[in-house]
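Need a sequence for this fold. Nothing fancy.
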């Protein structure tokens, strides 16, 4: 039997034309915001801590930062998550939105800028080895962040906190007297921001229009009623452009003839997983084998990928993928990068270039590296599965 089938007409499957009212997502952004906080213990609290430390059966003491428990991310309906004011945490818009023009994919696009305030109540506790509270401090933590959104008139903004967690900047154990007079910690908000509007859609994703008032009309209406217009979409902002290709792998080899340094270069990469460039990962390591000018081994991790630079071309016996972006070395240097990947029946290859952003000067180049360990996998199909 063949795999070709005649398409079934919607009417034959029992479907019929329907107009439905649904919330449409005009923009959807997630982010994580970290806030640093420092609290001082009062003299009375320090006395309680000292008293507990004087009792060997209660040592060691621990510092615990308790953050609010938030509801799960799903369901993500804005109508169900709009009431975010809670006794322990909430988010809210501060001020009015402002019109801005931003560069996206080489073009200037109109958007809106909004300020969102995220607040949570946290409790800092000092507990003994049995878990009994020695003393505690209640405080609030706030994070103010600006968001560039597709937020046209006629739409509503919904923000929610999907997770809150804390991390102590110093150790959590208090072993001996005297106890610390202050405590430093960080609180991270995982936030989810959506812009929505209720629209009417014909089944299979077509905007529908209301029917005319043409059933048993009593009289013709005077004047003209305004047309039904839905809020303008922002396709350049959301959902954004999908990837045309995916690449995944781990590979290493000796640097090429045109390299700036001699050594072994290694890459670990996952470009456009699931068709989403922002989820890409790229790590580069260089093991310096030349000791004449001192060891210059380092690591580099990409932090941002430029969608305008993603390109795939055919080469002899295979395909080549190019991508550029920004990243940081383990020495703290912020650099631009160019990455070229080649999957070929004649052997896989790659090249990495690191460039100073301000001067445009190339500070490192692997040259063309012949892969001796590992493999490079590139796929331009829409249903690529690059799992190993």
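Here you go.
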């Amino acid at each position: 039997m063949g795999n070709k089938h005649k398409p079934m007409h919607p009417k034959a499957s029992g479907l019929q034309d329907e107009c439905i009212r649904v919330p449409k997502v005009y923009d959807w952004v997630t982010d994580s915001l970290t806030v640093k906080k420092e609290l001082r213990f009062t003299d009375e609290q320090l006395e309680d801590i000292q008293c507990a430390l004087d009792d060997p059966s209660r040592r060691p003491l621990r510092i615990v930062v308790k953050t609010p428990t938030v509801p799960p991310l799903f369901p993500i309906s804005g109508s169900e998550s709009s009431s975010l004011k809670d006794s322990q945490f909430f988010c809210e818009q501060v001020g009015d939105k402002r019109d801005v023009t931003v560069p996206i994919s080489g073009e200037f696009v109109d958007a809106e800028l909004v300020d969102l305030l995220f607040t949570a109540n946290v409790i800092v506790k000092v507990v003994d080895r049995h878990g009994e509270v020695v003393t505690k401090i209640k405080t609030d933590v706030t994070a103010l962040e600006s968001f560039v959104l597709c937020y046209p008139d006629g739409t509503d903004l919904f923000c929610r906190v999907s997770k809150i967690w804390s991390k102590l900047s110093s150790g959590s154990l208090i072993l001996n007297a005297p106890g610390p007079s202050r405590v430093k910690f960080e609180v991270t908000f995982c936030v989810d921001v959506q812009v929505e509007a209720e629209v009417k859609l014909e089944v299979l994703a077509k905007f529908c229009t209301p029917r005319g008032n043409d059933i048993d009309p009593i009289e013709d209406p005077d004047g003209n009623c305004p047309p039904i217009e839905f809020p303008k979409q922002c396709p350049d902002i959301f959902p954004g452009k999908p990837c045309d290709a995916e690449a995944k792998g781990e590979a290493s080899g000796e640097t090429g003839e045109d390299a700036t340094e001699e050594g072994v270069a290694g890459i670990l990469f996952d470009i456009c997983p699931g068709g989403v460039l922002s989820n890409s990962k790229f790590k580069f390591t260089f093991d310096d084998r030349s000791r004449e000018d001192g060891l210059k081994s380092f690591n580099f991790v990409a932090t941002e990928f430029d969608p305008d630079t993603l390109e795939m071309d055919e080469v002899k016996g295979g395909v080549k993928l190019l991508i550029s972006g920004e990243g940081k070395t383990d020495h703290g240097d912020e650099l631009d990068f160019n990455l070229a990947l080649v999957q070929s029946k004649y052997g896989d290859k790659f090249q990495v270039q690191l460039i100073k952003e301000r001067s445009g000067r190339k500070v490192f180049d692997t040259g063309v590296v012949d892969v001796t360990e590992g493999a490079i996998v590139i796929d331009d199909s829409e249903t690529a599965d690059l799992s190993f």
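For context: The first strand starts at residue 19 and ends at 40.
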